[in-house]
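Sorry, any thoughts here?
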Amino acid sequence: MEKKKIVVIGSVNLDMVITVGKQPVMGETVLGSGFMQVPGGKGANQAVAAARLGAEVTFIGAVGEGPSGAALVESLSANGVFTGYTKTVSDRPTGTAMIIVYGGDNYIAVDQGANRAVDKELIDAAEVRLREADMAVLQLEIPYDTVDYAMRRCGQFGVPVLLNPAPAPTTPLDSGLLSGAYLITPNEAETFALTGIEPATPDDAIKAAGRLSALGANNIVITLGGNGCVYGFGTDFRHMPAIKVSEVVDTTAAGDSFTAALAVALSNGKSLEDAVIFASKVGAVTVTRKGAQPSLPYLHEIG
């Protein structure tokens, strides 16, 4: 079967990860272990995940000069991602994420660095890839105006956009970002930022989905971690429980693998419900492994 073409426009970071046995409080130093430096960034994670799940993937992004940026681009290429539109800039460092893992959950701080250099000119340079795409995937770790421009260009080309509004926006999103996306995939924190409704329960998430729909969003999937997700469109939203795993090792990149899996399934003509089922399986495998990109499963690993 011919591979579907997915273009991911977004961030690429060097993740610095440490695992702790006690959740630190403000001003406290705790001892950790298992320090790792691994490829990450929401955009790059989603690109690698989609490639491992069988898509033909192009990544549009930026890194800084030096060995870490070069290694991140090489990692993308090694996973079958086309990096011809991943540029290297001299005035900004490669994006960096500091990740503390505690009890399988994570706390993340990101310096965007070179990710802020993903601009309109780079989107235009990749026009030929965008025109051929079956779906484009974007997040919010690059400048908002670039996200908006890319979405409008995709609209001109008739390419559906999956918008992962992450990290949680600190200011209200332009309504065009919501209405211009074929699908949005916020998590709990992002849903609260977008709607003012805290999705503490599936019923709350359904209310929040209704608010997003009223704000102009089309298809919606709200991820709820261990509570699964809520999905649907218009006024028809349903809850899907999470797939249980024997042990949650690290949730880093679980949302990214879920989003990528949705893009792959939908671009292959699956219904939203079937896409959510597939994405839930992919996310369940991801949380049983350490690290961002190292944890992303291949298609043959999904039952």
Remarks:
- The mean pLDDT is 94.
- Residues 272-286 form the longest helix (15 residues).
- The radius of gyration is 18 Å.
- The chain has one domain: 5-301.
